[in-house]
Amino acid sequence: MSKPSINLILLSLINTFRLSGFKSLFKQTFIYGLATVLPRMLSFLLVPLYTSPEVLSSPAEYGKVSVIFSYFVLFNVILAYGMETAFFRFFNKEDDKDAVVGTATISLIISSIVFFVLALLFQNQIANYINIDVKYINLVIWILLLDALVIIPFAWLRANQKPMRYAIVKILNVVINIGLNLFLLLSLQDLAQNGGVFEGIYKPNFEVSYIFIANLVSSAFTLVLMFSFYAKLKYKFDISLWKQMMKYAVPVLIAGIAFSINETFDRILLKELLPADVADNEIGMYSACYKLALFMTLFATAYRLGIEPYFFSHAKTKNPQKNYASILEFFVAFGSIILLAVVVFADVLKPIIIRSEAYWEAMWIVPIILIANFCLGIYHNLSVWYKITDRTKFGAYISVVGAIVTLIINFVFIESYSYKASAIATLVAYAIMMLLSYYFGRKYYPIPYNIKKIGLYMLTSIFLSVLSFYYYPSNYFIGITMLIVFLVLVIVLEKNQLKQVLKR
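Above: the chain's sequence. Below: its structure in token form.
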């Protein structure tokens, strides 16, 4: 079956971008993409700092941080309860925009305050139940409150096409967080030795708390920057509208919880199912090595953010399925190269990103997690069918299936295989989600994917990655040779498309 060349796709994109409306959309997508990717990079950029023995003394300390951040992901979803998505849906649907903004904002204010009060009242019980020091719980409660209060203000900026302000606030949050981390964890102790005001601020063995204090300050600063939204808000609450919004939001909440389980719940289960004397250490090693998969995650996120406008803008054109098929093929080709490159040079990246050898025992998981996130990226590309056909409930169903798989494998195998079971669970869950999306997509919105070529790229890169990492570790002659051979394979198979691109 013939496919349009990448050149035709690029020409189509260029022609589309000439339209003023879509130029604006592309610009906004780029800015929002930057604002989305940078916060994701925050955790990655801070790994070398946190894994330095001078900062966090052991993997166990980093494990504590990782578990708490896992709860962050889950509770951020719960506190948002799908209201952000409902806001976008009804803001574009309803004539009374003020009612939508007011109803969504008041709903989140009330729910956030109720959560805040109850959480503070029962913080000791919460701390005992999840086995986390109450001093950390107190900081987490405040951060969750502050983050919840900026959900609708940020959504309002997006709804009113204010991408620059959105991006500036998001980037400032990242800059302040990183800056405070560097100051509190690296500089404060030295400054305190000279006496003065810094001596009163500094507390020994307070590093974990400093990490969350940095997060708290950056979240508070973000809320201050968004205060103008609350000052101008017309506090109008429509109970009938709220019921409609909640009806729309609940499935989104379920999908969000399912996705958070897939993404971070393994750390929580490791904490609960492993012996207390080893749990934090195992989690610390696992979480640090997991970060090496961010190379794949960032690629997949940037690709998705950049190409999603194209999906929707071409949905009503003649035979858009062919272009969608080519887009996935290019994603798999580039993703396969990234997978193999990161695996081959894992030992080079390891001391740069993970500063202490105490974490390196968990490097076993790196290819597994990379492949898992590769599957997740393919899943997001495949998901075009239910977005185009307004069958978004399938996204929730598939995420729930993935969450169930994650929970079952972790519950059954963690006690015997520790974080290795968690890595395998992540891979199996994302692979199943990918296959389910492909299966249902063939039924509801057939796309002529070149399965043979996609399968060749994916399976070859996985095979070479496993061979290089597990059978020829640190053998750069073999590893680089494999990478070159694979690159040649891609170039040969895509030579016609590459020739047309180079001619331009």
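The chain has a mean pLDDT of 85.
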